[in-house]
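Budget justification aside, the reviewers requested a transparent look at the raw inputs and outputs of the sequence design task funded under Objective 1. We therefore reproduce one unedited record. The lines immediately below are the structure tokens for a 314-residue chain.
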């Protein structure tokens, strides 16, 4: 039996200690702790990495601090459109949902698409129709209303900008470069890895825009032979760089280690085209990497027999 391990993120971007209050920082830390513990309890009891990443992401989706599920940012027309994806490394099965509204836990809908349909990706109204057919939990608009997020939308509209933001503060210039998405990767005692990602995307997004988070190979990927990855950052760049699958490919075809592959993609390839963000990564030996090329990334990791590490800044 292998040892288990898990890593999570709550978004990357310009997260500066100088802009954070001690109170807010401790709320973020607590949110990360709750989420990683929700995954750990499953892994500790010989549960699957798939269950663990789903549980960790659900916990972050239920926390209004993070840009996913309940705390999702607002679209240009004042709605919350949610994206999520999940993948298991043993069978390469995957499920994803894009632009769905009022679904309480989009990550569980992504998993249901993987397990209960013959498809990988469902979008918008069709996805909602499928969700209803399998008794997914819905919540009304008020559940997703977070005042600070709404203020961010008003701010973004003033300049018609698109913010990638999770901080909950509407005015700071720095906020424009913050990213928000949540995700998890894990290795279970059976030797299988899995990845899950969920997001509200970008504040003020229009036209059914979807980022990398629901795209298998871009924002999420898992393969027992290489690694499991969950990304956060400027989605358009992550799609164009096929980030998650590229890291897997560098390991599979070029024989790079997890660390070498992550460095290549996050610190070289993405930087070259101006793609800001980061990711959490794990391999089947339980190695964990948490690289990012932005100022900070909400993140936590834990290995069997070791304590939880929670980090925010560089
Ligand atoms: N990657 C997400 C997107 O582009 C946003 C983020 O991670 O902050 O939708």
């Amino acid at each position: 039996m292998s040892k288990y391990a898990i890593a999570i993120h709550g978004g990357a971007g310009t997260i500066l200690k100088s802009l954070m209050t001690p109170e807010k920082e401790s709320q973020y830390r607590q949110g990360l702790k709750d989420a990683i513990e929700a995954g750990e309890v499953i892994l500790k009891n010989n549960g699957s990495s798939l269950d663990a990443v789903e549980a960790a992401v659900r916990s972050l989706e239920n926390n209004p601090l993070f840009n996913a599920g309940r705390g999702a940012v607002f679209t240009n027309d004042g709605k919350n459109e949610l994206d999520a994806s999940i993948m298991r490394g043993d069978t390469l099965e995957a499920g994803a949902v894009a632009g769905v509204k009022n679904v309480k836990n989009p990550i569980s809908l992504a998993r249901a698409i993987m397990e209960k349909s013959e498809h990988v990706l469902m979008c918008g109204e069709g996805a909602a129709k499928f969700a209803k057919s399998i008794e997914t939990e819905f919540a009304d608009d008020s559940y997703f209303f977070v005042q600070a997020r709404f203020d961010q939308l008003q701010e973004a509209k003033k300049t018609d900008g698109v913010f990638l933001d999770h901080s909950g503060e509407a005015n700071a210039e720095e906020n424009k470069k913050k990213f928000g998405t949540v995700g998890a990767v894990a290795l279970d005692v059976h030797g299988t890895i899995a990845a899950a990602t969920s997001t509200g995307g970008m504040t003020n997004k229009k036209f059914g825009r979807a980022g990398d988070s629901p795209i298998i190979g871009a924002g999420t990927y898992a393969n027992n032979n290489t690694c499991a990855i969950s990304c956060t950052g400027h989605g358009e760049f992550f799609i164009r760089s096929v980030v998650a699958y590229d890291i897997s490919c560098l390991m599979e075809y070029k024989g790079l280690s997890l660390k070498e592959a992550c460095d290549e993609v996050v610190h070289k390839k993405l930087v070259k085209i101006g793609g800001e963000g980061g990711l959490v990564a794990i391999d089947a030996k339980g190695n964990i990497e948490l690289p990012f090329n932005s100022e900070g990334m909400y993140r936590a990791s834990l290995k069997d027999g070791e304590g939880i590490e929670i980090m925010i800044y560089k």
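Helices lie at 22-44, 49-61, 106-116, 124-133, 147-159, 235-240, 243-254, 258-273. The pocket of aspartic acid is lined by residues 11, 164, 179-181, 199, 201-202, 211-213, 232-233, 235 (CB under 6 Å). Computational costs for records of this kind are itemized in the attached budget.
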